[in-house]
Predict the 3D structure of the following.
Amino acid sequence: MNVRDRIQQLKEEKGAVVLAHNYCLDEVQEIADFVGDSLGLAIKASEVTEPIIIFCGVTFMAESAKILNPEKKVIMPEADAVCPMANMCSPSQLEEAKKATPSAKVVGYVNTSAAAKAKMDICCTSANAVKVIESLKGEEVIFVPDQNLGAYVAGKTGVTIRLWEGFCPTHQAFTLQMVEDMRAEFPSAVVMAHPECRPEVLEMADMVGSTSQMLDYAADSKAKEFIVLTERGLLYRLRRDSPLKKFHVPDVAVCPPMKMTDTRSVLKALENEGPELLLDDEVIEAARRPLERMISLR
Ligand code: SF4
């Protein structure tokens, strides 16, 4: 029996659902029961009824699944797949920032650890960050950890936002020169950029949005060609959903931790029912509030 068939068999036998991020390898997206962006995955994780969640992505996403559905056994096939940006905001640093500006609300991108989320007022994703900031009705905001997303949202809402010094190494690698060169090579292409990109890159984009928003935009657009400024894993769904359109990503558009999980590691995780992701009950309790507050804004 091949790996794919064996995964299917074990999923049914054990009552497991496979969730995968849009940046995962094509072979993982193919065997997943649900593929989405961070917001879609968080919502889906909260609704899973099967006893086991196999989470293909990076640790903060699997943690969110556990926080939102703590009765489930959450398994990460590659437990060391950590988002570097999530490590740029520790709970103690956040505590310091809160002490320095006690009146400010802490809005945290979901790309943070569970322990950091436990200290936030509300979470956001790239898909709903503007809506989250607007829901605070002009209150002062500390935005962690992505400075590019924070600056983008500040510009969109006019709210005063204290930025953190975090960034995504993958999106930060897209330079203005790189995008100008791609535009020269593909002059009729529409430029779609993820808000984790540098401000000067976002300024020249025709559309700024999360991965799911890019999928919708490309499918609805009359344009036939796109420059896609996000991780190359999104190409799988872009090409599947819009097979007659052309998509180009920069060569450097790779997030190494997102590529750690493959179908063999998913199969191994199903066979061993591990490694299981575990969190302290207190952290789950405290981190659930900002996540649920975000989801309630849907
Ligand atoms: S693409 Fe960037 S933000 Fe997303 S998981 Fe990779 S390093 Fe983290």
